[in-house]
Amino acid sequence: MSKHAYMIIAHNQFELLEILIKMLDDERNDIFVHIDAKVQNFDFEHFKNITKFSKVEFTDKRYSIKWASFDMVRAEYALLEKALESNNNYDYVHLISGVDLPIKSQDEIHSFFNENFGKEFLHFTSEKLNDTELDRVRAYHFAMGRRNYFNRLITKLESKSARLFGINRIKNLEIQKGSQWFSITGAFAKYILSQKDFVFKQFNHTFIPDEFFVHTLLINSKFKNNLFMPNCNNDHYACARLIDWNRGNPYVFRAEDYEEIISSKAMFARKFSFNEDKEIIYKIKDYVGESNE
């Protein structure tokens, strides 16, 4: 029997998080959750007891994650440490957000990853990054937390200053980037954990480091030979996900997207919102079914 770890990063929409966890509840799955440190009065005990088959554990450390900051990387490592302390032999480790949903049954998901066992499901935005993208990790960046004009201006000035003074943090290192959400083998998860010191030195004070560090580790390792879609050309099916960046940042799925979702080859979809459209959430839940029903 294959064994999977689901690592969830959540900061709001906890009614949706409860549905997500119940849909993942399966004897073949363990579930690990990071709740943003800004959240107060979260009912940890309630969530630990909503499953029948999966264990639900929370990270020992909680981080207050700001957009584009290194705290997202810290949260991912907290999840990896918690998961691999629990079981060092997961077949697959999935990183998803609290506003994602599986769009296939657990039997279908496990069959899919069994059929593709050994493949790494990671999305890349392009085969080769341009200078603007590379500047995110070549320079030191400190303006994080808000997508406003002032912070964007500071980020541009930091990049220009680095070029002017010849600062380049990525000499002799191939860099890649893509969606932070992944489905990777347990072996690659262990490798990421083993590279923690390097990642914390190399990617701290970079811009949106969660889009770089896993991809860069993979492309500079033997695991690059195991990519599910080596030339994915910005196709999110490469990480087994349905994500639409054409209609939003990303687009929030609605009831009218139901047929598109259930006909997708992907295993998971991102993202959903009770505030935008709760009907689609219940439709997907009813279609896929909670694993413990």
N-end to C-end Cα span = 20 Å
Q: What do the pLDDT scores average to?
A: 94
Uncertain segments are none
Q: Which structural class best describes the helix and strand composition?
A: alpha/beta
H/E topology pattern? EHEHEHEEHHHEHHHEHEH
Query: In which order are the strands of the major sheet placed?
Result: 3-2-1-4-6
Radius of gyration: 19 Å
The rough form would be described as globular
Number of beta-strand segments: 8
Question: What amount of the residues lies in strands?
Answer: 5-15%
User: What count of helical segments does DSSP give?
Assistant: 11
Helix fraction?
25-40%
Major sheet size, sense and barrel closure: 5 strands, mixed
Question: How would you describe the overall organization of this protein?
Answer:
By secondary structure, the chain is an alpha/beta fold. It has 11 helices and 8 strands. The strands form 2 sheets. It has a 5-stranded mixed sheet, sandwiched between helices. It has a 3-stranded mixed sheet with strand order 5-8-7. The two termini are 20 Å apart. The model has no long low-confidence stretch (mean pLDDT 94).
Quick tags:
293 residues; alpha/beta; five-stranded mixed beta sheet; 11 helices
SSE blueprint and pairings:
Layout: E1 4-10, H1 14-24, E2 29-35, H2 44-48, E3 56-58, H3 71-86, E4 92-97, E5 100-102, H4 106-115, H5 131-138, H6 149-164, E6 182-185, H7 186-194, H8 196-202, H9 213-219, E7 241-243, H10 258-262, E8 268-270, H11 278-288
Parallel strand pairs: 1-2, 1-4, 2-3, 7-8
Antiparallel strand pairs: 4-6, 5-8
